[in-house]
Amino acid sequence: MTIVNRDLLMKNMSKEQDFPLTFEEWEQQAAENMLPGGFGYASTGAGRGETEKRNAEAFSKWAIVPRILQDVSTVDMSVKLFGRSYKTPFFLAPIGVQVLAYEEAERATAKAAAVMEIPLIVSTVSTCSLEEIAEAVPSAPKWFQLYFSSVHPELSYSMVERAEKSGYEAIVITVDTVMAGWREQDIRSGFSPLALGYGKGNYVNDPVFMKSLPNHDQESVIASIFENIQHPNLTWKDIAEVKKRTSLPVLIKGILHPEDAKIAVEYGVDGIIVSNHGGRQLDGVIASIDALPEIVEAVKGQIPILLDSGVRRGIDAVKALALGAAGVLIGRPFLYGLAAAGQKGVEKVLERFIQETEVSLALSGMADLKQISKLKMVRQ
Ligand SMILES: Cc1cc2nc3c(=O)[nH]c(=O)nc-3n(C[C@H](O)[C@H](O)[C@H](O)COP(=O)(O)O)c2cc1C
Ligand SMILES: O=C(O)C(=O)c1ccccc1
């Protein structure tokens, strides 16, 4: 990959002024375009908001010690994961109920991801069904995120099977959301996207789910989604059951403790996503970038480790990669791009991430991302 940013920095500045630039500017635009309940839901953290704040601040406490004179005229940002090569280390984090941001919801996001060649992780509680999304971008790389149903494990296996059939290439099981976090903003505003029926795409298109319903009116559908989405009794045994039922790689999203990372390896899990859910679940927990180094040490390269939570710009991604992440998930930034300008907004956010990452790698003396573990990092 060549340095796309050269043109941007030297001659193409004027085109860029049509779009917000920083995360804060995109967020501001999203706040103007979204309904207050929906924006409050998406933007705030759980509890006192400590973790959401810590996620962002923690990146600034890690500093890069760059190398010089390394011939960085071309930068190779490609990564290899589960036997597939990707042009950049970026993924779109699973974000449910995207109709909150934009009418076309996940379909618009999926098209942007396809244009930018960034894999998309589709949420269990997406507005559109996983099949609709696959139809919109048949050849783009896609993963499916599962919220396990403890009341109907068969529903979870059915969703996994549908994902596999529709061409999804990995299953991400989110384990930090056994129940919803303590979200005061939503308590105050009385906002619940599930109660409004915004996250039902994958449920109403599932034969196991529909068969389990006493009747098919909207009220029963929503009541049953609430019942199925919580899974406080989820354990490693359930993970093993999912592993048995799919030939796809299975990742666990929401690991912060190195011991849990080791257990994941023992259970044959194929990858880990270090995440605190963007500070939306347990407030007061460690920033994911600070949890990463010990997890990397515990896993010893046996399986790839990805990271999300607080990644706001290219340099954050460079830091995560230097600390041992094999890939980085972009969350709220793309959601705000979607709210601000639909598909084009998501593309723009992703383009900026790629460009800033490329420039940052070059200025760090890192022409090849495969060498990034050599980049010296210190705490400041
Ligand atoms: C509005 C919203 C909805 C989300 N929905 C899901 C979801 O359905 N499944 C999931 O695993 N994570 C979900 N997440 C968490 C993201 O995947 C990701 O972990 C988080 O956004 C990272 O934090 P950041 O966006 O602050 O960087 C959601 C996040 C937001 C903001
Ligand atoms: O809000 C979230 O973070 C999330 O994961 C979720 C859970 C249920 C419905 C929609 C989103």
Find the structural class using helix and strand composition. Answer: alpha/beta
What is the helical fraction, as a range of percent? 40-55%
Number of domains: 1
Reading off the top of the CATH hierarchy, the class is best stated as: Alpha Beta
Rg, alpha carbons: 20 Å
What global shape is seen?
globular
User: Which fold name is given in CATH as the topology?
Assistant: TIM Barrel
What are the secondary-structure elements, in order, as H or E? Answer: HHHHHEEEEHEHEHEHHHHHEHEHEHEHE
Any guess at the CATH architecture? Alpha-Beta Barrel
Please give the order of strands in the largest beta sheet: 4-11-10-9-8-7-6-5
Family: Belongs to the FMN-dependent alpha-hydroxy acid dehydrogenase family.
EC number: 1.1.3.15
Protein name: L-lactate oxidase
Catalytic activity: 2-hydroxyoctadecanoate + O2 = 2-oxooctadecanoate + H2O2; mandelate + O2 = phenylglyoxylate + H2O2; a (2S)-2-hydroxycarboxylate + O2 = a 2-oxocarboxylate + H2O2; (S)-lactate + O2 = pyruvate + H2O2
Describe the protein.
This protein is α/β, with parallel strands linked by helices and 380 residues long. It has one domain (5-379): Alpha-Beta Barrel (TIM Barrel). The chain contains 17 helices and twelve strands. It has helices at residues 5-10, 13-16, 23-33, 36-43, 50-60, 105-116, 130-136, 153-165, 184-189, 201-204, 207-212, 218-229, 236-245, 258-266, 288-299, 314-322, 332-363; strands at residues 62-65, 79-81, 84-86, 90-92, 120-122, 142-146, 171-174, 250-255, 271-274, 305-307, 327-330, 376-379. The strands form three sheets. An eight-stranded parallel beta sheet has the order 4-11-10-9-8-7-6-5. Helix 16 packs across helix 17 (332-363). The longest helix has 32 residues, at 332-363. The site of flavin mononucleotide (FMN) has 21 residues, from helix 17.
